[in-house]
Amino acid sequence: MVTESNMEKIKMESIIESLLFVWGEPMSVKMISEALGVESKEVYRVLLDMTEKYESNQRGLIIRRVNKSFQLVSKRENFAYVEQLVRPIKKKKLSQSALEVLAIIAYRQPVTRGEVEGIRGVKSDKVIEGLINKGFVAEKGRSNTIGKPIIFGTTDKFLEYMNMRDLDELPDLDDFIEDFSQLSQWEKNQISIDDMEEMDGDRVSDVKETE
Question: For the segment 31-83, what is each residue's pLDDT rounded down to a tens digit?
């Protein structure tokens, strides 16, 4: 592999900037590394430097991190001006049931279908399937509990939609509902955070990754 010393850092930044611009979607460090022929750790370090530069230089574009991927996007505060130039794609609102299930999965993941249904009190298999089809939820493995049920979690598309780098940036539950659905409040079958906290806290030890 070529090391950073064999390729000027400024040249790397130029190439990475072009790759991010053309790709459009979040691009993984691995993909960029393979395109440049440079080790991933060096690419990651350059990406972090570029992210800081974009922020500090008050540019109209920023580099946003989504888990282990990076994306070139316009600043949120400039949206009003961009909106005058292009008509934004209208995002279809989720149904109340889909919103409830997504909230449970987002805040309690990894979680099984049975646990989701235990909180909601109704069957949720079709709703979960719909969220998977929309790309917001994915299978994350199997639980080590009896029957080894499938566990679910949110995806990078969910993070991108919410404009978050990782799950540590999840907002308060009420803010999540308002941001994601553009609803001002829960309607019927409201799920409180207390309901979720009645479930056992840390499920990480119960998780067996899907091979």
Answer: 999 999 889 998 999 999 998 888 887 778 889 888 889 998 888 888 777 77
Secondary-structure class of domain 96-162 per CATH: mainly alpha
Highest mean pLDDT pick, 46-50, 93-97, 162-166: 46-50
User: Does residue 65 contact residue 165 with C-beta atoms inside 8 Å?
Assistant: yes
Q: What share of the chain is helix, strand, coil (3-state, %, to 5)?
A: 55, 15, 30
What the block records as the tokens of 160 is 């991108």
The arrangement of strands across the sheet holding 137-143 comes to 111-112, 150-154, 137-143, 207-208
Instruction: Decide: 29 and 69 in contact? Cβ < 8 Å.
Output: yes
Question: Per CATH, which fold does 1-83 belong to?
Answer: Arc Repressor Mutant, subunit A (1.10.10)
Which residues 6+ apart lie within 8 Å of 138 measured at CB? 132, 152, 153, 154, 155
**What's the predicted TM-score (pTM) here?**
0.53
Q: Residue 35: name the closest of 12, 55, 52, 51 by CA.
A: 12
Q: Contact at 8 Å (CB) between 195 and 94?
A: no
The pLDDT tens digits of the residues spanning 132-147 come to 999 999 999 998 988 8
